[in-house]
Amino acid sequence: MTSTVTAATLTVKITETISLNGTDQGATNTLTIASVNEISKRIVTCSASQTTTVAEFRNDVYESAGAIDIEDSRYIRITNLDDTNSVEIAVVTGGGAGTTYQVKLDPGHSHMLGSANDLMLAEADTTPSFGTMADVNSIRVRPGASAVDVEVFVASI
Asked: Residue 64 in contact with residue 119, Cβ under 8 Å?
């Protein structure tokens, strides 16, 4: 089967706009990713006080329904769409020595990552080893006492 999807370039712009004392102090940074031919974009309602898996990554996508190929992913963004409540997100590696890092997303904030392939190393100390990075297995979201909507966007080649 030959795909009829034409790959395109994803352009991500981050713009901060602020003027202090009449002087522009803002910035714009642009990232382009060529040959994107797969997008996973969804809005997920995460139940109050429950952990919801919002993205799964696998080497073989047939291993899990809706899984995204680890090696083909290039850009991952999770955005808290709530205007009042924060959420915590967990980025989880796989395998027998799985590790996790967690961050809080305040209302309207986003957390962006590159490819799920060799992305992270979580450590339980204050001295970074800058060691071997591990693949991301999943991204999970847990709100507090109120349900929260998050947007999940993943671009792959």
From this structure: no
Query: Residue 39 and residue 77: Cα distance in Å, rounded?
Result: 12
Quick one: pLDDT at residue 97?
Answer: 67
Where b means 16+ CB within 10 Å and e means fewer, 66-75 reads ebbbbebbbb
Q: What is the pLDDT of residues 96-114, one digit of tens each?
A: 667 899 999 999 999 999 9
Q: Give the strand pairing for 148-156 and 38-46.
A: antiparallel
Is the four-CA dihedral 31, 5, 57, 135 of positive or negative sign?
Answer: negative
List the structure tokens of 81.
């769409």
Centroid of chain to Cα 137: 12
Distance CA 53, CA 141 (A): 6
